[in-house]
Amino acid sequence: MCGRLNVIDDPGVRELCEGLQIQLFPNRQIFSRFIRATNELSIVRQKDGIRRMDNAIWWLLLEPADTGFKPSKYTSFNTRYDKLNFKGSAGYQAYRHSRCVIPAKGFGETEFVNNKPLHYHDLIAKDGAILLGGLCREWVNKTTGETALSCSVITLPPHPKLMHIHTKASPLLLPIDLTLVNRWLDESITDTDEFTPLLQPHIPYDLTAQQIDKPSTYQPVSDPTSIKHD
C-alpha cells in the first residue's frame, strides 16, 4: 500500500478534524497534495487522556542521528495487519498503547511488477475525507535528549474492488464513527480483540480513483472511476 498521502487544505478534511474533538494542536497542521513516506504528517492521538493533533515522521522505526532522529534502514511507513499480534514486531506494543488516526483527502497506490512501477493511481474521498488507522511511537535520543514522534499506516489484505489498482495490500480505512474512533484512540484499551473485525479489507465511503502519470506531477492519464463503499 501507499507511500503517499493527499492531505490538502480541504473543507472535508477540516470538518473531519473538527469532528474528532481534538483538544490540543501543539503544531500547525500539515497540508500537502503529496506527502511521501519519511515526510512529516499530522496525526490524531490520545495522550494522558487528552485528544491531540501532533506532527509525526511517517516511518515508525527511527534511529538516533547527530541531531535528533532519522528513519531506520528497516522499511516501516506501513505496518501489516498480520504483524500486529506478533510479539517483538515493530507495531506490537504500539497497537496496544499508541494507536492513532490520520485524516486525509486521499492516498496513492503504485503497482509494481518485477520491482518496476507499472502504473500509479490516486484515490480520494468522493465527499468529505478519509480516516486512516495507524500507529505511533515516541522516541528519546539518549545522547542529546531530543525527542521525536513517528507513525505508520496499518495495511490489510488487498480489497477486491481495488485489485486493478493495487494487488498486494490496502490501507485500514476507518468508518467515520465517533464511538469507534474514541475506542480506537483510547490509550487505556490494551486488549485489542475488539478491533479484530477492522482488520479485514473494507471501504466505508465512496472513492474516486484516477490513474496519473507519476506522483510528483499527478497528471491524469485516463478518465476517473468511482469506487462505491461496501
From TrEMBL:
E.C. number: 3.4.-.-
Protein name, per record: Abasic site processing protein
Protein keywords: Covalent protein-DNA linkage, DNA damage, DNA-binding, Hydrolase, Lyase, Protease
Coiled coil as UniProt keyword: no
Family, per entry: Belongs to the SOS response-associated peptidase family.
Pfam families: SRAP (PF02586)
UniProt source species: Rheinheimera muenzenbergensis
Key word rRNA-binding present: no
